[in-house]
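Let us work through a complete example step by step.
Step 1: write down the sequence.
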Amino acid sequence: MSDAKSSLRALPITVIDSQKPVAEEAHAHHHDHAEEGPRSLGRPAPCLLFVADTAINESDIAREMQFHRSMKPEQSRAAAARALVVRELLRREVQRLGLDDEVQSVGNEPVEEARIRVLLEREVENRVPTEDDCRRYFEQNRDRFHSPDRIRLRHILLGASADDVTGRFNARSEGERLIGELKSNPVLFTDFAMRHSDCPSKEQGGELGWLERGQTTPEFDRQVFRLREGLAGFPVESRWGYHVVSIDEIAPGDRLEFDQVRERISDYLELQVRQRELQHYLLELQERYEVRGLDAIEAEAA
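Step 2: predict the structure and record it as tokens.
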């Protein structure tokens, strides 16, 4: 790769990463610039971003921002700008190669997406990992491949809605009180569950049975899978309130053999290779079609 090419940054290939709109701040980034004069009704949106001689104006970026959610509007704007740059690079290459009239859409596929799909199928090598590649990855990452860990637990839910500050404070205090008593008399757990729990499981003494990760609400799941066996020394918080938790048994997942995960590894490695090839291809397109203005937009998001 030439020195000029090596100085280029890799652009993400994903054009749209979400269908949910961001906050209305998306439109707050039509910045005024001294050299353009004040913005007014009827004036074109400022253009600070270019791919060769094609301008991508602030209105285009603002519309694209709804597909790129982020904690900060500046980051959403930068992601939208990158997506539009990628789209324009690929559009120009489709035009250069004369694919406009050759492409047939599949089903309800938009024509533009069909052209990009055909372009990438033609220009980006799709390499399938070999058996040796997969086995090498497996041997280097054996600890990652095991069946899900499981825990068997009981709980006492002291319910309080998320917006009830007083109720949640009282629920936590009650949980701490119950834990204090259970440390001295663990056999009371079933009785306490039947008397105090706001969960239907109270009829079974708080038994939730065997759980795997992802089977409960995320915040509860994250905490209980970190606990050791026995009574938790603090109330576990969730959106439902506070829980007194007893981990009765922990069953680590069994190690999986290569044949059980070979297809998963192959898919993962193929995706990694594909992404690298796409990034290299986009670097080539950036060398062919100059991109201007993206660095400044990304600097605002840093």
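Step 3: interpret the result. Residues 150-251 form a domain with the Chitinase A; domain 3 fold (CATH 3.10.50.40).
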